[in-house]
């Protein structure tokens, strides 16, 4: 069973509440929220007030991906807005351990993320304390980019590590996920698929979500 987390970065922002309900009704497990600050990445999206506003549109798990500098400053606000997982980047400036401590203190899922150019060794020290690892398969900042296949060995490495040290770790991939790359990632050990443009360009994303949920080692 694979978790599917559609990224509302590709949603129609003029009707965001309805788009979040659409994801919910299509049977997605999680809703992926891409927060960008214009510093860590060259793009700006939305923050806690917008997440709080759409929180009422779905009961699904809110999976926040913070592409921001100094995430420790904002953990409290994102938790208050109703996020169920908060993921911070190991490359972000600021105290990442402090950010993780704050997420732990709110008793929500702790996520850590790694960019394509960052060596996998840089994230391993955080994985003992993580519930979720988000492996970027594009350069963060924009939807609709092509999957970087050089990231696949990183999924395998983390999956092997997790089997031995943290078997409950959720292994998520984010960027350029489509029918083909979804399979590649699940075969390599991913169990959460984040996808924006591929799902949102469909009139009905439900059949794809169902298919992807059935991928994985425990699928029939
Ligand atoms: C990119 C974001 C992704 C993005 C993925 O910085 O983290 O979540 O929405 O979009 P697609 O699936 O279009 O690559
Ligand atoms: Zn993301």
Give structural notes.
34% of the residues lie in helices and 20% in strands. The radius of gyration is 16 Å and the shape is globular. An 8-stranded parallel sheet has the order 1-8-7-6-5-4-3-2. The protein has helices at residues 16-25, 48-55, 75-80, 96-105, 124-127, 152-165, 179-188, 197-200, 206-213; strands spanning 3-6, 30-36, 61-67, 85-89, 109-114, 132-136, 170-174, 192-195. The termini are close together. With 220 residues, the protein is of the alpha/beta class. The chain is built from 9 helices and 8 strands. Strand 7 (170-174), helix 7 and strand 8 form a beta-alpha-beta unit. The site of D-xylitol-5-phosphate has 21 residues, from strand 2, strand 8 and helix 8.
Features:
globular, 220 residues, eight-stranded parallel beta sheet, binds D-xylitol-5-phosphate, binds zinc ion, alpha/beta
């Amino acid at each position: 069973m694979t978790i599917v987390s559609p990224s509302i970065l590709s949603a129609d922002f003029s009707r965001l509440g309805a788009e979040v309900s659409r994801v919910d009704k299509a049977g997605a497990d999680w809703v992926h929220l891409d927060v960008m600050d214009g510093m860590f990445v060259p793009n700006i999206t939305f923050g806690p007030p917008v997440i709080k506003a759409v929180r009422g549109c779905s009961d699904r798990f809110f999976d926040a991906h913070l592409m921001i500098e100094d995430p420790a400053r904002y953990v409290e606000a994102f938790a208050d807005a109703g996020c169920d997982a908060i993921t911070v980047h190991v490359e972000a400036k600021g105290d990442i351990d402090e950010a993780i401590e704050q997420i732990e203190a709110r008793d929500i899922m702790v996520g850590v993320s790694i960019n394509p150019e960052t060596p996998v060794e840089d994230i391993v020290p955080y994985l003992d304390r993580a519930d979720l690892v988000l492996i970027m398969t594009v350069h963060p900042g924009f939807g609709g980019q092509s999957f970087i296949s050089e990231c696949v060995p990183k999924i395998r490495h983390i999956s092997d590590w997790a089997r031995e040290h943290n078997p409950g770790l959720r292994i998520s991939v984010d960027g350029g996920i489509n029918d083909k790359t979804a399979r590649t990632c699940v075969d390599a050990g991913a169990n959460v698929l984040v996808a924006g443009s591929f799902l949102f360009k469909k009139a009905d994303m439900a059949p794809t979500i169902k298919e992807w949920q059935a991928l994985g080692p425990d699928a029939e």
